[in-house]
Amino acid sequence: MAIIQRKSLATEVAAQLQEQILKGGYEVNQKLPVEQKLMDRFGVGRSTIREAVKILTNSGYLRVQQGLGTFVEDNSGINETLFQRLKRADATEIEEVRRVLEMKVAEMAASNRTGNDISKMEHFLAKRNRAAEANQPEEYIDAHISFLMAMADAARNAVLTELFKSFTKELRYVLLNKYHETGVLNDSTNLHHSLLDSIIRQDPGRAWHWAGKITGQAM
Predict the structure, then answer these.
(1) Do the Cβ atoms of 166 and 83 come closer than 8 Å?
(2) Which positions ≥6 away from 34 have C-beta within 8 Å?
(3) DSSP states of 111-178
(4) C-alpha distances in angstroms, 184 versus 50, 91, 96, 175, 179?
(5) Could you give the CA distance from residue 139 to residue 149 in angstroms, rounded to a whole number?
(6) How many CB atoms sit inside 10 A of residue 97's CB?
(7) What's the angle, vertex CA 164, arms to CA 163 and CA 168, rounded to 5?
(8) Per-residue tens of pLDDT for the chain, all 219 residues
(9) Rounded distance between C-alpha atoms, residue 74 and residue 77, angstroms
(10) Cα torsion 50, 42, 86, 181: sign
(11) DSSP category for residue 180
(12) Is 70 helix (H, G, I), strand (E, B) or coil?
């Protein structure tokens, strides 16, 4: 288990414990280490460990036996939600999924967008550009995510849009941790304008192409 380098939310500790359980780090019916050892391992307080255990108990991964300790439950029948799976995904997984989703969303947006969708995308792209010029990475990333969500709305597929919304929440965290200035991010500005132009022109093929360029899938 990797030590959490900053004070973590209980959900983050729970996600790491859950990942260890799913990977076989703990066997069914195995007793977890005592609270103090878990506190030392994760670098968090007692209340955080207790809340993390509560989360996993409610999810069916652990069981607490009064006076005996906390044990790993048989989780073979548990169906992990998409939100839970995304929470424990690593940055590489998120980037790989991003490539697939953004290209399809862009293609569908070019076919189904409305004038209102175009206005929203233009607004967020302009906001993104202003944040880049001011070297405001968090504002830049928030505007970038908003642009992607406006593009997803334009695709006019409710299931795809909801999937994309869940995904972009984790993408935001990945980008915030990866980029601390806007220089590298700003290199894709022209590509995003080309993508938007393709959507405006209702050209799905070109939208697919530019989304692929942005995500590194197309030459």
Answers:
(1) yes
(2) 69
(3) HH--HHHHHHHHHHHHHHHHHHHTT-HHHHHHHHHHHHHHHHHHTT-HHHHHHHHHHHHHHHHHHHHH
(4) 41, 17, 19, 12, 8
(5) 15
(6) 16
(7) 125
(8) 544 444 447 888 998 998 888 888 898 899 999 999 999 999 999 999 999 999 898 878 899 988 889 999 887 655 566 766 777 677 788 888 888 899 999 999 999 999 999 999 999 999 999 998 899 999 999 999 999 999 999 999 998 888 888 888 888 888 888 888 877 776 788 999 999 999 999 999 999 999 999 988 755
(9) 8
(10) positive
(11) S
(12) strand
**Cα 167 to Cα 169: distance, rounded to the nearest angstrom:** 5
Tokens 């036996």 found at = 65
Residue the block writes with tokens 């929440």: 169
- Which tokens belong to 87? 């929470």
One-letter amino acid for residue 130 of the chain: R
| Amino acid letter, 112 | N
The CA distance from 121 to 154, in Å, is 9
Contact yes or no for 191/213 (Cβ under 8 A): yes
| Single-letter residue type at 51 | E
